[in-house]
Specification:
The complex is a heterotrimer.
Chain A (H helix, E strand, L loop, with lengths): L1 H6 L1 H32 L13 H27 L3 H33 L7 H22 L3 H33 L14 H60 L1
Helix pairs in contact in A: 2-7, 3-4, 3-6, 3-7, 4-5, 4-6, 4-7, 5-6
Chain B lengths: L1 H15 L5 H19 L3 H24 L1 H8 L2 H7 L4 H30 L4 H32 L4 H7 L4 H15 L6 H29 L2
Helix pairs in contact in B: 1-6, 2-3, 2-6, 3-6, 3-7, 3-9, 4-7, 6-7, 6-10, 7-8, 7-9, 7-10, 9-10
Chain C lengths: L1 E11 L2 E12 L3 E5 L6 H8 L7 E7 L11 E4 L11 H12 L6 H7 L15 H14 L4 E5 L7 H16 L3 E5 L9 E4 L5
Parallel strand pairs in C: 3-7, 3-8, 5-6, 6-7
Antiparallel strand pairs in C: 1-2, 1-4
Helix pairs in contact in C: 2-4, 3-4
The chains are: A mainly alpha, B mainly alpha, C alpha/beta.
Amino acid sequence: MPLIDLANPSRFLALTGRILPWLAGATAILLAIGLYQSALAPDDYQQGATVKIMFIHVPNAWLSMFVWGVMSLAALGTLVWRHPLADVAAKAAAPIGAAFTFLALVTGSLWGRPMWGTYWEWDARLTSVLILFLMYLSLMALWRAVEDPSRAARAAAILTLVGAINIPIIKFSVDWWNTLHQPASVIRMGGPTLDKSFLWPLLVMAIAFSLLFITLHLAAMRNEILRRRVRSLQMMQASRTVFSSEQSASTKMGTA
Amino acid sequence: MTALAALIRRDIRIALRVGGGALIGVLFFLTVTVLMPFAVGPDLALLSRLGPAILWLGALLASLLTLDRLFTADHEDGSLDLIVMSRTPLELACAAKALAHWLAAGLPLIIATPVLGLLLNLDGTATLAVAVTLLTGTPALTFTGMIGAALAVTMHRGGLLLAVLVLPLSIPVLIFGVAASQAAIVGPMSFGTPFSILCALSLVSFVIGPFAAAASLRHGLD
Amino acid sequence: MRLSGQQLRCVRGGREVFSGLDFAASAGEALAIVGPNGSGKTSLLRVIAGLLVPADGTIALDGGDAELSVPEQAHYLGHRDALKPALSVAENLSFWREFLGGEPEDSAKCLSAVALDHATHLPAAFLSAGQRRRLSIARLLTVRRPVWLLDEPTSALDTAGQALFVGLMQGHLARGGIIVAATHLPLGIEARELRMGGAA
């Protein structure tokens, strides 16, 4: 039942309008706690303080993939159920996903900098994230290229699903390509050997960033719904002028 | 002058709005550059040696692909007829369109160069050298490419035909652009020699491009 | 002022479209080019507009600006509307006003003359075919040109739009303008007929 309620854009706007302030507040509090805990976490004996970049990097990297998953679900909604809210969800998620991916790239390169001596190394993980970033950008380009949102939605949905299937293949290929050239990975991110003192702040930060995504996504969806309403109002205005012009023209002819 | 300014403003506006292709060129540039390491391997020393060449090839292809729509869009909606008829000399109108195209599609490529230089392990000087040579050379690519774009309109074919027409014409720019950036990075030649030739190529293209494009538009319309 | 063509011959794709064609229209006069499809109505208009080079013959505008060629003193309203969907209605119109130069008219007045003043700030993409045609008609008003070359000007217009356009054409003729229109529908104004391809 609640799902069907949500499906109505007006209901969606009303409901999210009530939820959003709470979500934003929870996000802020969790982020503050997470950052505080991250600051308190001990330095790594090998990497020093740079290890703390992990607390930002890992949640961003996780979200960069999670958002594509959300978009794939939305794409199914667009293609299978032809649901208008699914279009909106997919469109609103793309720039946010791109932003998280970009942050993952930047923090990853900053993290690697002391070890590599350069800002960029063609490391298997980072390279895969870079390709994911390119795919987000191409998806956004597709959304921008088509003026009519419902047509753009179907094209974008197909690309999203193709991407969802292809991303693991790309990931595998990049890993293979990378081991071909350099057998041992220089940097080990995360993994089960993580100390408990790192685990807790990381978990909090992961939840905080996920909440941040939900908040931003809902807000962006609201914007998109409103943007479409403006668009349809404008189209109505454009076609209404025909009637008024017909009237004014006919009255002009009448008086002439 | 107001006519030309209006034309430049309009073309930039269209390029930056929904459906405009200005930023797709940058995305293409980025993608081509990222593909290169997969072909040659992730060896940073090798990549930094090849870097200027990779960036130049990427920029060349990106500016070529975005040229496709330079005249076809105006031809399809009938604007080109009115531009040909107008009191503004067609050569100047062509030059204005090329300038607008370079501002909207060429300049972003140069702005993106430092980021791509980072990926290819270029140091500060090398990146600067590539950016400066691209800044000097990409106008030449746009203005010579415009000839191909004008020919493609009259042939009612774009895309691949455009590439085949224009790529040979852009060889000199590629040679001296890469040579100048290599000279700045490793020597032994002085940077000035190939760079001056690159400037000369750009200046020549500013003259030849608009005239050839205008001539082919005038004769090809029907 | 008098627009005339003498002994015009037009060849397209190796086929002779028309030959030995004379026409003339004086100030305040409209010339309707009529004839079946493929008889060369559009070709003749494009020859006058300087968009097609005639194989033979000359076109002159006596009493016009001697510094300017005939196309530079003419408006051409073709099949295509020369509008950019990404730009707003006002932006489309003001671009042509600035680009075409000459004596500009007030944009707002031109838009209300074609009953599009409600849509000024909307993207042109939202306009219907008839509204797009109205907007390109506004282009004829925004810059004064003595000669109007019209190719099926009323094709996409509804009855109200046609009535409106008739008024605008009458205004243009009253100011001493010249209209040459290719059409298979009655123009709605008094016009001399130039029949093409009748014999073929």
